[in-house]
Automatic annotation (TrEMBL), chain A:
UniProt membrane topology term: Multi-pass membrane protein
Species assigned in the record: Streptomyces levis
Tagged with keyword Transcription regulation: no
Chief location bin: membrane
InterPro entries: ABC_transporter_permease, MetI-like, MetI-like_sf
Lineage of source species: Bacteria, Bacillati, Actinomycetota, Actinomycetes, Kitasatosporales
Region (Disordered), start-end ranges: 1-28
TM helices/strands, residue ranges: 34-56, 97-117, 129-153, 180-202, 234-254, 289-308
Domain of life: Bacteria
Bias-annotated ranges (Pro residues): 15-24
The ABC transmembrane type-1 domain, residue ranges: 93-307
Keyword set, alphabetical order: Cell membrane, Membrane, Transmembrane, Transmembrane helix, Transport
Protein known as: Sugar ABC transporter permease
Length: 318, 284
């Protein structure tokens, strides 16, 4: 979407109003304002009611003890104290961070490798077949796919262990051992999500001018070295977007652990959003759940800010 | 020349083309494999569903599992709920985003910048963080455990508004000015000049909304407590829960049925979907 906007200083248009008049005809002006109000009302009212007020509400609620049934009682910051002293909450934050690191790293690595490979020479139809295939899991429901994956990763009758058995690997307890469960959740998540970064990278690669590759080739840079020294720096703005969005999404992971392991074994795959869900809607502790939500929000903001700060050093804009 | 002959082949040329394409093919198989397995296993009889090896084409294809799904859960009701929720949200988002995007792009009014800033800022706020107060707001309106409770909060779309604003900004300004000179008011200018040109942008908003809300799980899980208001993903997860590991093929038949509309949109609307997903990097 190219931006063919004319700069706002466009007073040169001939208008029927007298030349020195600083305002346009008032009737039309009023009409425009009325129209703007009507056009914006649904979006602005909706955003205020369902996002702005709830943010304030989250912070407000986190200062109260409330189980919906009794009237809320002011508790100051004690919900935060309770939450931060709660072993399950702390473990869920640790799990979520571990998940984020591995899921985002794997997702970016797979997506970048495949985007570079697809970008190489091949028939046009083949490229579009690959592109569609890698993008396809994105249109499926994470919940239903996790249902499918739960069967595939089953230790006793799952297809994956059967395939591994063919090459002599003993059955892996994918979902039932504390160590493997998180890895499985990461794999299932990345399987569905990498297509998103892949599409971003394919777009980013297409935006790199051909001349740059030709110049690099003339200077003797080809193959892997060309990618490391020429392609990657030019792709760095796309890498930034892909990693920021990847991290924000990963910190909110819910469906995969909820369906695959329900947080287990033990608490080994319990994530922050699962804890918010359980605290609010199973235990009816709305104050504590809001406190966890506020902490998650702060974490997301902090990680994103840190990333933009770091990126100033590494991202290279053309 | 000498430089070229010195470098080793692997580093100089990268992988051979056939190896690169073979590698891509393996990855494509890994990506599509679970989906193919889902479809082929859903066509096995429940008794054979556990059998290994898995077969690409079932030896005795059977629709028993599909009949099983219809016996176990009210597929039509789930599909109707999902269609209502997704369809109304998609239509609603196209309207709200089209109107607000136009206002931000082409109308002059007070507080335009701060209001647009507000819209952009809310793109950063994860749904999961605000879900508790949203639930309470809906409860106070008696909208929990109703389909409307899923639909109404999803009407405003910060990302869609941003997308449509960019879309309208990309249209030539002269069109509207010519209409204005011909005496068209602001509404006529929108209605007969710009709105008809907005269809491709609206298609992106609609397809993205469909893809997201058809598959949505978190909000329905929290808001819909009685089975009659379940959407498809919720119904399928509870189907699996009810059956334990009893009959894979029945559950998978349900998964296949629920995938059909999403796959149809993927086939028909792949381009707007791709453009939407990549245009600002927001997909959830």
């Amino acid at each position: 979407m190219t931006n063919t906007r004319i700069p706002p200083a466009r007073a040169a248009r001939p208008e029927p109003s007298p030349p020195p008049a600083p305002r346009r005809p008032p009737a039309r002006d009023r009409g425009t304002r009325l129209l703007a109000t009507l056009f914006l009302a649904p979006t602005i009212v909706g955003i205020v009611v369902f996002t702005v007020v709830p943010i304030a509400g989250s912070v407000g609620l986190s200062l109260f003890h409330w189980n919906v049934i009794d009237s809320p009682s002011y508790a100051g910051l004690s919900a935060y104290g309770e939450v931060l002293g709660d072993e399950t909450v702390l473990v869920s934050f640790r799990n979520t961070l571990v998940f984020m690191v591995f899921a985002v790293a794997l997702q970016l690595l797979v997506a970048l490798t495949l985007a570079l490979a697809v970008n190489g020479r091949m028939p046009v139809w083949l490229r579009s077949v690959f592109r569609s295939a890698f993008f396809f899991p994105l249109v499926l429901s994470a919940a239903s796919i996790s249902v499918v994956m739960k069967y595939l990763f089953n230790q006793d009758f799952g297809v994956i262990n059967w395939l591994l058995g063919l090459v002599g690997v003993a059955p892996v307890p994918w979902l039932t051992s504390e160590n493997a469960a998180m890895a499985t959740v990461v794999l299932v998540y990345v399987w569905q999500q990498f297509g998103f970064s892949f599409l971003l990278f394919v777009g980013g690669l297409n935006n790199i001018p051909k001349e740059i590759h030709e110049a690099a080739a003339l200077d003797g840079a080809t193959g892997l070295r060309k990618h490391l020294t020429v392609t990657l720096p030019l792709l760095s703005p796309t890498l930034l977007v892909a990693s920021v969005v990847g991290i924000i999404n990963a910190l909110q992971v819910f469906e995969q652990p909820y369906v695959l392991t329900n947080g287990g074994p033990g608490d080994s795959t319990r994530t922050v959003v699962m804890v918010i869900y359980e605290t609010a809607f199973e235990q009816l502790r709305f104050g504590e759940a809001s406190a966890v939500g506020v902490l998650l929000f702060v974490l997301i903001m902090a990680v994103t800010a840190l990333q933009f700060r770091l990126s100033r050093r590494f991202v290279h804009y053309q | 020349m000498s430089q070229a002959t010195l470098s080793s082949g692997r580093l100089r040329h990268g992988l051979a083309p056939w190896a690169r394409i073979a590698g891509l093919a393996v990855c494509a198989l890994l990506t599509l494999g679970p989906v193919v397995w889902t479809v082929s296993t859903s066509l096995r009889t429940p008794a054979e569903a556990f059998d290994l090896p898995p077969s690409l084409i079932p030896a005795n294809p059977s629709t028993e599992a599909y009949r099983g799904v219809f016996d176990q859960i009210d597929v039509w009701l789930l599909a109707l709920n999902s269609t209502l929720v997704t369809g109304l949200i998609a239509a609603g988002q196209m309207i709200t985003a089209g109107l607000a995007g136009y206002a931000f792009a082409r109308l002059e009014f007070r507080f335009k910048k701060p209001l647009f800033g507000l819209v952009l800022a809310t793109m950063m706020v994860p749904l999961q963080v605000t879900i508790v107060p949203v639930f309470l707001v809906l409860k106070s309106m008696s909208l929990t455990d109703t389909l409307l409770g899923l639909i109404i909060p999803a009407f405003p779309t910060a990302f869609g508004t941003f997308l449509m604003r960019q879309y309208f900004l990309g249209m030539p300004k002269d069109l509207g000015e010519a209409a204005m000179l011909d005496g068209a008011g602001p509404w006529r200018t929108f209605r007969s000049v710009y709105a008809p040109l907005a269809a491709p942008g609206l298609a992106i908003v609609g397809v993205l909304a469909f893809n997201y809300h058809w598959n949505e799980f978190f909000r329905p899980l929290i808001l819909e407590t009685s089975g009659q208001n379940y959407t498809l993903p919720l119904g399928l997860v509870s189907l699996q829960g009810n059956l334990g590991t009893g009959s894979i093929s029945v559950v998978l038949a349900g998964v296949v049925l629920s995938m059909i509309p999403a796959v149809a949109v993927f086939v028909v609307g792949q381009r707007p979907l791709r453009e939407g997903i990549t245009s600002a990097g927001v997909n959830r």
